[in-house]
């Protein structure tokens, strides 16, 4: 069975305090749904080498055992509560993708 992934790119982070509240709630929801965080992004000391456009935005990669599990985690009550904690006007590119078996 192919794994499922959440991929998020954050073009800008204007309110780190409110984002921290989301991070805490989202982390709990992801863990409860069986997700594993595979990324360290620049704001937490992860190393980045940027090519092409040269952008070093915050990137989050979460792995689930299946695509269906990834979709269910996003739709879960716990994660929906986390989304409410995102700051107003917050922008991110969020995708759920199916891995290659």
Q: Helical proportion?
A: 25-40%
The value of Rg in angstroms is: 14 Å
The rounded distance between the terminal residues' Cα atoms is: 6 Å
Q: How would a crystallographer describe the biggest sheet? A: 4 strands, antiparallel
Strand content: 15-25%
Question: Count of DSSP helices?
Answer: 3
Calculate the mean pLDDT score and round it: 87
Number of strands: 4
Shape: globular
Strands of the widest sheet, in order across it, are 2-3-1-4
- In sequence order, what are the helices and strands, one letter per element? EHEEHHE
**Unreliable residue stretches:** none
* Class inferred from helices and paired strands: alpha+beta
Domain DUF1330: 3-100
Protein name: DUF1330 domain-containing protein
Describe the structure.
This is DUF1330 domain-containing protein. It is a single chain. With 101 residues, the chain is of the alpha+beta class. 34% of the residues lie in helices and 22% in strands. It contains three helices and four strands. The protein has a four-stranded antiparallel beta sheet, with helices on one face. Helix 1 (16-32) packs antiparallel against helix 3. The protein is globular and about 35 Å long. The model has no long low-confidence stretch (mean pLDDT 87).
Brief write-up:
The protein is α+β, with helices and mostly antiparallel strands and about 100 residues long.
Keywords:
globular, alpha+beta, 101 residues, DUF1330 domain-containing protein, 4 strands, four-stranded antiparallel β-sheet, Dimeric_a/b-barrel, single chain, DUF1330
